[in-house]
Amino acid sequence: MGIRSSGREAAFQMIFALETSGDDADQVINHYWRALPLSDQDEQYEIHPETKKYAEFCVTGYAARSHEIDEKIRAASHNWRLERMTCVDRAVLRLGAYELIAHPDIPVAVVIDEAVELAKRYGTSDSGAFVNGVLDHIAQLAGRSTSH
Fold first, then answer.
1. Which of 146, 84, 90, 80 is CA-nearest to residue 119?
2. How many whole angstroms separate alpha carbon 51 and alpha carbon 32?
3. Per the domain annotation, does 147 fall within a domain?
4. Burial readout 7-39 (b: 16 or more C-beta within 10 A, e: otherwise)
5. What is the pTM of this model?
6. Higher pLDDT pick, 47 / 101
7. Number of domains comprising the chain
8. What is the mean pLDDT of the chain?
9. Distance between CA atoms of residues 144 and 28, nearest Å
10. CATH assignment of the domain containing 128
11. Which domain holds residue 18?
């Protein structure tokens, strides 16, 4: 898995923890890195510094703009209230929407593809298609071209 893909997976897990723990972004980030599983040698896994940096960048960025990001998701998700979505779908959408809105340098297709993969891995059988549709709509609303 690449540096950004690993960073996105960590960021997704931390954004999920933001909602479920009630802690702030700094607390979640600190706890996440300390709680990583141990290897066979009882040493913490080595995390690439760029993976860690990107994950923290996404989590703190989302946390700072959470109201704006959630409004974008609400506007793009027809017939689905944010509160009715699964926690996994919500966390994936929050990460993907943050990247689409705050990082125009990242291609739309990359953001959506990575989010769909996370949704498939951690969500329900319908999560991938749902996340794809909502993020595609957010990209369109943000004036970003999509090829999905």
1. 90
2. 13
3. no
4. bbbbbbbbbbbbeeeeeebeebbeebeeeeeee
5. 0.90
6. 101
7. 1
8. 90
9. 31
10. 1.10.940.10
11. 3-141
